[in-house]
Amino acid sequence: MTAMMKKKILQLQSSSGFYGAENMLAQLALALQGSAYTPVIGVINNTGDPHLELIDFAERHGIERRIFPCRSVLDRSTIRDLNDYIGAEEISLVQTHGYKSDFYAVAATRGTKAARLGTCHPWIVNSGRGRFYAAVDRRILRRFHHLAAVSDSVYSDLLRAGLPAGKITIIPNGIDIRPFRRIVDRGMILQGYGLAPESRVIGCVGRLDPEKGQHLLLEACSRLLMEDERLVLLLAGTGSLASALKSEAQRLGIAGRVFFPGFVEAVPELLAVLDLFVMPSWTEGAPMALLEAMAAGCAIVATRVGQIPDMLEEGKAGLLVTPGDRTGMEEAVRMLCQNRRMADEFGRAAAQKAAAEYSAETMAGRYRRLYDQLIASPPAA
After folding, report:
1. Residue 90 exposed, middle or buried by CB count within 10 Å (0-12, 13-18, 19+)
2. Inter-axis angle of helices 76-88 and 99-108, to 10 degrees?
3. Local structure of residue 327 (DSSP, 8 states)
4. Cβ atoms within 10 A of the Cβ of 87, count?
5. Which residue(s) pair with 203 in the sheet?
6. What pLDDT band is residue 1 in, cutting at 50, 70 and 90?
7. pTM of the entire predicted model
8. Which residues are CB-neighbours of 316 under 8 A, at least 6 positions away?
9. What are phi and psi of 198, to 5 degrees?
């Protein structure tokens, strides 16, 4: 199939780092390569707080990319730049990932033939600003031709917001399974993190923000870390709570056993050395970090939120706990730390589930079918 025959899909994001939504976008763009659709990663670059990790990813993987500078909350020049680009490149469909890209896509596609597809991740509503942006986004999404919800819970949120069911398709996130199946030198990776070869590692990967629940994880693990000198806790990621979590570890008397490596690019290598992966979130959709842990065959403890119960087959591929239940989380972590056979069984089940249902190829196939429909005959927005 020649490049002339391919249709271009602009994957548009206003990024604040490289987190779950960015990872999902990146995985989708990779999986679309070689198909009838050419992915273009577009980043609305907030010049006051620039984040071009997605552009760097696109460059490393040979994916077409474009930066759209944005100097204010409402920058008319950004709308013009986007509109010019969509017209000049004959973009067939703009797929968005977040409230800001939702707004700019609606404004910039007027007068063009490009269809609008909004990918809906969970709204973060733990602050007044978050609630305001979510309220605005609910109105903006009415102007899209179609919406893709990444989980059942997001689908339910959209229905409660008054968006019609016929306009929404549930498409779970997916990842490239292959990097998580590689054989690695565990001792060398542990050494890279400054950990002893005999260390047993409990890990969490995600933004260090309130909705991710790492404070609860620190409390749940504090007694275990004191009981077993081999155990360490590794909290990978960046975010607003980094300093507070370090202070909390100090207060609990476990600062020397808790490690904060920051943003980790080599996630497959990190997951390969974990004895247990824990996701203590208060809210999630279909979290990419959990999919990666599943693909790596990690034993998992996670909260019963969003799509997580379905992803872990209601406890068949990992242990589920109620969000906010510190005692329940401590008991689950203790159980899998002390029962290696059970942990191994959960890890195998999780890896099988990830490969069967949550591969990037499966996700991309579902999106391609949606593209076919929207580009052939976009419904009224």
Report:
1. exposed
2. 60
3. H
4. 15
5. 234, 277
6. very low
7. 0.83
8. 349
9. -85, 5
